[in-house]
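Re: beginner question about structure tokens

> Can someone show what the tokenized structure looks like for a real chain? I only ever see the sequence side.

Sure, here's an example I had lying around. Input first:
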Amino acid sequence: MTNKNSTFSIMFLLSFVPALCAAKDYPVANFSEYQQVVSELEPGDRVLLNDGVWRDVEFVFSAQGTAAQPITLAAANPGKAIISGRSNLKLAGEHLVVRGLVFKDGYTPSDAVISFRTAKPTDDSDYSTIAVNTRLTEVVIDDFSNPDRYETDYWVSVYGKNNRIDHNHFSFKRNKGVTMAVRLDTVHSRENKHVIEYNYFGPRPVLGSNGGETLRVGTSHYSLSDSLTTVAHNYFEHCDGEVEILSNKSSKNVIKNNVFFESRGTLTLRHGNGNLVEGNAFIGNGVDHTGGIRVINADQIIRNNYLSGLAGSRFGGGLVVMNGVPNSSINRYHQVDNALIENNTLVNVDRIIFGAGSDEERSAIASNSRFINNTIIHDSKDSPFELHDSVEGVEFSGNKTNFAPGEQLGKGFDNVDSLTVAAPKLPVTKAQVGVSWYPKYEKSALFETAKSVVVKPGEDTILNAYKALDGAAELVLGEGDYHSSKTIILNKPLIIRGAGQGKTRLTFARKSLIDLRNGSAIRLQNLSISGVRAPDDKANAVIRSDSKPMTKNFELELLGVEVTDLNINKDFDVIKLRQSTFADNVIVTDSNFSNITGTVLKLDSERDDYGMYNAEYITVKDSNVSNVNGGLMTVYRGGTDESTFGPHVSVDNVTVTNSPAADANAHSILLHGVQRALVSNSHFDNSAPILVQHTVGGPVVRISDNTYSHKPLYQVQSVVPGMESTFASENNKFSE
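And the corresponding structure tokens:
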């Protein structure tokens, strides 16, 4: 006998059968088929994109699923539906799932690759254009970058409420704009309770400008609104775009159990109050500018984080507590108040800074705050603490160190000489994030080549050998004369190695010997280059970057190279980097330059004064420069933006003679807005002075152990009056 309860249960379950049976799969082979089915989707339905390349498609995925039966847009086979060309995806509706797509070989025609809304709502009650309760999972966006590096777009713009972004792969965003942004510009997206978890944020190359954040939650305009976003168990690797890796600009967010691996910059609590930063690991391994956590605003909690091997300074330090602006506007720097920094472990963190940014405007020190029960160890046993202002508003207690922290910090430290800590298990591993079917980044040497090709002397033999290459390679030149009747246009890494200066001789008949394009890099080694056969034209150069914007950073090296007779006209440079192009490294060693009307390193095309520049690291060592009218280098970074680390300049053991002559109204070296510079062990004979122009940040410039025959050796100017800077001149000797 069947009881009444059993009968009711069976009837209840059977009532769902029609709905469950109604769910359909819609395989689609092209965009036209997609458009035909997308407007008719019911709960439980799935749209499955066929394998292949989907080029120039703008998907709008708007539907109404349910919690039990979401509506899905997916690759029929994960990773096999490739979205390319000028393409994007806009989401609207409820209980949607997007899975398994790959965006590569293109860029968005709009302001976002993936947007969680189709349009801005018309009123506060209208949710028809917003995605809520939606999941983005196992999606790859790889180098889907606008070809203009300073054209702004986002890869993922998150609107709505209760959305989950998990197990995705984002790597190599090369143009301006945040990789992923949580937007709060309407009420539909505040107090959103989004969850961003288990994502792989792969390399974000140095942008050379503001706008290179990897993840931003909120904006300054809505920063006092609660976002309630959770960012957890994500892996950030080599995210180097700018000083802010993760930029928090809203209130009451939770940022926990993430790993930041060898990433330049910091997790920055830039705006907003009451955020929790807990259980994160920052692994720097001594990489330049790797940072930890920067604290601004009120009621922030920073606890149980592990920070190791962080080499960053100033705003990019290991742990930075900033000064605020009294009565700050919403977009400036609010005072740190009621911050709790507790139970954190800092191992070989080079700088822990209090009062960072202290100046006439940022004069409000931290107040009502506690720095308690932290463990700080440094192998050098030197104190990493920097106090740029008073710390009277911070309570220090229960902290342990293996060094003496200094009297200014009071009695809140227990100095234990033998203090040690074991490296903890990371909160998440690289293997646990992203997708299993798409490769993650593995570091490799740019000039690592398996192929070496011997090239004989003659006309265009170098160019012909290069055209036959299918990847990075080394061209080995013998003794003799090589001439290029055409410019060698590079789109891959190349080494050209000769038999030695004076033995392997190169000439060229066009405005440049080599032009760099996206994907290229060049190393010239052990050869001589002459401009005697170049045309009498303006803006000649031995090596130029593209006249069009380049998204991919490059490297440029001259090792044991001689360059002479670039004097066919009045403006003939050795290396000229043009606007919207960027070198990670420009390296010159053991080289000689003479009889040149231009400049050896012309790195000054970004003249718009928006904080942009042409090269991150510039190194000249063990070289000679004589009779070069434009001097050794012109490096320019204009504007007052504080979001970047460079440029960095190092000049060591270089002899500069008549370059330009001392009586000229010019400079042998121009460092405009350079953030780090060292000119040392060099000799300046009958040459114009070094000109240092401070523009932004806290630049550190040292000119030491040089000799010079004409005064002055250098001139220092501050474009921004009263700007904080560190300039040192040591052991320089004048000899007539």
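Each token stands for a local structural state, so reading them left to right follows the chain. Helices lie at 4-14, 17-22, 31-38, 461-467.
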